[in-house]
Amino acid sequence: MKSDLVRFEDWTDPVPPAAREVVSRLPEDDIGHPPLLFVPGTSSPSFAEHWLGHAAGRGFSSYALSPRPGGDLRAQVHDTVQVAASLPRQAVLIGHGLGALVVARALGRYPARAAVLTAPVLSGWAVARAFSLFSRPVLPAPAGDPPVLVAGSPDDRAVKRKALDRAAAGYGGAPLLFPGMGHDLMLEEGWEEPIDAILDWLEKQLPMPGH
Amino acid sequence: MHDTPDPGDRGDAVCVVGAGASGLAAIKSLREQGFAVDCYERETSVGGAWNWRHDRSPIYSGTHLISSRPLTEFPDFPMPDTWPDYPHHSKVLEYLERYAKHFRLDQDIWFGMEVSSAVPAGDGKWDVTIRSTGGGSSRVQRYAAIVVANGHNWSPAAFEAPGDFTGQVIHASAYKDPARLRGRKVLVVGGGNTGCDIAVEAAQQATRVWHSTRRGYWLAPKYVFGRPADQVNDRLLRWGLPLRLRQWLYRRTVKLTSGDLTRYGLAEPDHRPYESHPIVNSQLPYYLGHGTIEPVPDVERYDGASVILTDGTKIEPDLVITATGYRPRFDFLAPELLDTDEDGRPDLHLHAFARRHPTLAVIGLLQPDSGVFPLAHWQSVAVARWLRLRVTDPERAAAVQQKESTRPVQSWSRRRVIPTQRHWFEVDHVDYLRSVEGLLNEMGSVR
Ligand SMILES: Cc1cc2nc3c(=O)[nH]c(=O)nc-3n(C[C@H](O)[C@H](O)[C@H](O)COP(=O)(O)OP(=O)(O)OC[C@H]3O[C@@H](n4cnc5c(N)ncnc54)[C@H](O)[C@@H]3O)c2cc1C
Ligand SMILES: NC(=O)c1ccc[n+]([C@@H]2O[C@H](COP(=O)([O-])OP(=O)(O)OC[C@H]3O[C@@H](n4cnc5c(N)ncnc54)[C@H](OP(=O)(O)O)[C@@H]3O)[C@@H](O)[C@H]2O)c1
């Protein structure tokens, strides 16, 4: 019987530690916002280019984790939870592409303050290829019931509108859409719009001191 | 404090007693279910037993975990994976402090405040009297529920023997620093983890060490085949091996690792493996083999400067450390609220839910064959969900209660244990968690 409480795999065969690459951009003043942890997929462009600095400029301590080389899905989820738990405060997890799958899985293991899945690749060939997983990965119920946002573009050729709708429905919502953009929301022209919309959503979701 | 009509009435808020590992987990789960929480902690900081600065902490300077890291950490807040298999107690405290800070639990904790009484106020409510430990003021607040997480390892179980002793006798709770043992002749009484640890520290410091136990035990090493012993044990559980087979394997493994301890003069265990609380100590056999720990039977009486043992031997220690364990204490609750028997043992559903008071629960009142934190976490999740369900769907709550009352005690409580004071709340972590999961499933989604 599959159990969420009896975690034999974690208990008998813990994921070995690995050096983790985390880059961060911190705001000048701590205005009480939760820290953001960006989790890219293996083929996602870097968050560090634009989004990290932009979020820091809006007062969010921002961290981006590089996927462990050769790490399977379990190892990447492990790394995400390890880094999240190492932050001084309860973190918001933001994944992109395959990184959104890592975040969706990590949500079962860490009670995030909130989560954002951007252009989420949650099943299909890309998942099979990246993680040698041939059945649709099961998405756990998020621990602590955080607000979860799905964001993407209806014109993304890798993640179709239908997939966005399905992913969002899984968390009881509708996707936030940025028509005209492609898959790499954080790199393309107009990258400010999605990150600003995400941060606006966060500020609305989370009662923060001083707001 | 908050906006409620009567300053003494906290409305739907829940009171948590204690900010050790269990209390912290309780605050977090209750908050996740949307409850306002007031936690009262009589010490001035979090960590409970693991905070060695607290007067009542049972931790001595050399304490390391006996449950390995993966089986000890909270399931939703791992310890850093670079930490050792068995971290030092100061790391465990650091971990609990980080947990509290990460989830901002300290915002809901009132330090230096002791709960001195809690009485039912009708309608499931509780009148809780809180006293400042600095002396002076006390106040009464009304809560919708009370979650007790006061720990059970701080009130020493007394050891008494007839006669007078001219040497010094201390309980293990007062033992902190091995320097105290240097150059002395020490008798350690008690074969639990504390007694075995102190005997080993004494072997490294004292001029002579006797270790008195009233029965033989199954002494597990910290490592088996290069892996932490509890992880290897869980592999057997994972394969679903029946108890009898696991007992056989346990005997084999102990023979191959710790070895045959009767060779050093220890008694043969009078019970099967898994029938007493696990003792994990790799060093005790080493010092027994070096003759620096001399095993002796039970103490019969004191006689001036001597201690007379049950086999008639007379020894002359100048320091006796009684590591006879601790007893749960609920001074602020009338015994009938927890259905406590004359031996001080509460009778609670899943060792957590008061049978006749649906808004009273206890977290952490159990002894597993794993770390305590994961169990305290899931108990907290279940208690918080239960309290929420009572509010949102009383009918369903009643149905769940009805169903739970048919859950057989043997399914979550250890079936066979040696019948001494300390074993009544021994649980098998896998059976226990499966039962809690059953309850969570009845209540709806596991969160
Ligand atoms: C030497 C030793 C080693 C151990 N090693 C391990 C191990 O390796 N692994 C493991 O999992 N467990 C171990 N334990 C068990 C340990 O007790 C638990 O890990 C854990 O401390 C239990 O947490 P708790 O919150 O239930 O109780 P505690 O840590 O005792 O915390 C209870 C808190 O409640 C407060 N309190 C009590 N009464 C009141 C009141 N009336 N009003 C206000 N506040 C109150 C206390 O001040 C305290 O802070 C060990 C225990 C001992 C004694
Ligand atoms: N992480 C660690 O390193 C560590 C260290 C210490 C303790 N702990 C934990 O802390 C808890 C308490 O442990 P503990 O060792 O202090 O206490 P304990 O487990 O209750 O053990 C008490 C010991 O004293 C004996 N005893 C009790 N009363 C006695 C009497 N009147 N005369 C003679 N012997 C008597 C008991 O014998 P019986 O077997 O007959 O009952 C037992 O051997 C346990 O959960 C333990 O695992 C962990």
Number of helices of chain A: 7
Shape of chain B: globular
CATH architecture of the largest domain in chain B: 3-Layer(bba) Sandwich
Alpha-carbon distance between the two ends of chain B: 29 Å
InterPro entries (chain A): AB_hydrolase_fold (IPR029058), RBBP9/YdeN (IPR010662)
Keywords (chain A): Hydrolase
Pfam family, one (chain A): Ser_hydrolase
Organism (chain A): Actinoplanes lutulentus
Question: How would you describe this structure in keywords?
Answer:
heterodimer, A: 211 residues, Rossmann fold, 7 helices, 14% strand, globular, B: alpha/beta, FAD/NAD(P)-binding domain, five-stranded parallel sheet, 10 helices, binds flavin-adenine dinucleotide, binds NADP nicotinamide-adenine-dinucleotide phosphate
Explain what the structure shows:
The complex is a heterodimer of chains A (211) and B (447). Chain A is an alpha/beta fold. The model of chain A has no long low-confidence stretch (mean pLDDT 94). In chain A, strands 1-3-2-4-5-6-7 form a seven-stranded mixed sheet, with helices on both faces. Chain A has helices spanning 8-12, 51-57, 73-86, 98-106, 125-131, 161-170, 192-205, and strands at 22-25, 36-39, 62-65, 92-96, 114-118, 148-152, 176-177. Chain A has seven helices and seven strands. The longest helix of chain A has 14 residues, at 73-86. The relative contact order of chain A is 0.15. Chain A is globular, with a radius of gyration of 16 Å. In chain A, α3 (73-86) crosses α4. Chain B is α/β, with parallel strands linked by helices and 447 residues long. Chain B has two domains: 8-155 and 326-443, FAD/NAD(P)-binding domain, CATH 3.50.50; 160-322, FAD/NAD(P)-binding domain (3-Layer(bba) Sandwich). In chain B, the strands form eight sheets. Chain B has a five-stranded parallel sheet, covered by helices on one side. In chain B, strands 8-19-9-10-15 form a five-stranded parallel sheet, with helices on one face. The longest helix of chain B has 20 residues, at 373-392. The complex binds flavin-adenine dinucleotide (FAD) and NADP nicotinamide-adenine-dinucleotide phosphate (NAP). NADP nicotinamide-adenine-dinucleotide phosphate (NAP) binds at residues 63-66, 153, 157, 159, 172, 189-195, 197, 213-215, 276-277, 298, 323-326, 367, 420, 422 of chain B.
